[in-house]
Design goal:
This protein is of the alpha+beta class. The protein has nine helices and nine strands. It has a single domain, classed as Alpha-Beta Complex (Aminoglycoside 3'-phosphotransferase, Chain: A, domain 2). InterPro entries: Aminoglycoside_PTrfase, Kinase-like_dom_sf.
Amino acid sequence: MDPAREPTGAVRWSTHDVALHPDRVVKRFRVEEGPGPYVRERRALTLLAGRAPGVAPVLLGAHDPVAAADPPALEMSRLPGVPLRGNPLGERQLTAWAQAVRTVHSALPSAELARLPLRHGHERETVRRVRAWYARLPDRRAAPAVRRALRAGAEWLDGSGLGAPDAPPGIPPDVPAVFGAGDGNSANYLWDGHRVRVVDFEESGRSDRAYELAEIVEHVASWVPCPFDAAAFLHRFPLTPAEAARLRDCRTLLALVWVFLLADDDPAHPRNPPGTAERQARRLRRLLDDGA
């Protein structure tokens, strides 16, 4: 999801340090994040190299930490292209983007996919995190529109059935599993004029198509600073009725997450233009109204 995992007064928007070289990239992971992001990205690059070569960087080397204070690092090929984020996206870019997403989703055979752990931040984990935010995050700093959206989001979440303790964990039984990149930031998709390739697999793992598509179209990058046509993008993914219904719920859940994250943006060091949290609150209310 890209920014910090927990709203606590200041949002941290990066979980790694990246050194760009002419022909390679060295990505160093933060020690305090634990081994998870490093392990997930290393596994994803290894799997995709064998199952969908060309859609992601080639892993050139993996540097495990020698001491506890040493950050793990991955060395990978540098892909051509510019990030989709911040650029106007026409039919060619949207089609190529959708193709890259489908390639990642379908890269692994079902038996191999079934052995993978769930991606970081899948439904139940995200619901648990949101409920924890509701339990402890004061909203006195938030604008009135944001507070109203959070109250409406709480009511929706209580009635949604998402993350219910009695529901089976993992992928719902009526939707197929896919391999999910796990981060919807359009900055992680590079357009070279012909095709789109994917970087950043820190959150990756077993997921489902509706959840992964919701990650993309509800990420703040979908409309800040340059919006893309989310409906046209989603139209490139024929969904089953079960997936379409789940997509609505997943979009609402992740829009709610972004209300929290954006409301917690540090006013002394804002990452987004003034009023972004209020605009996100309106986006959440539209989703709630559409689903009513």
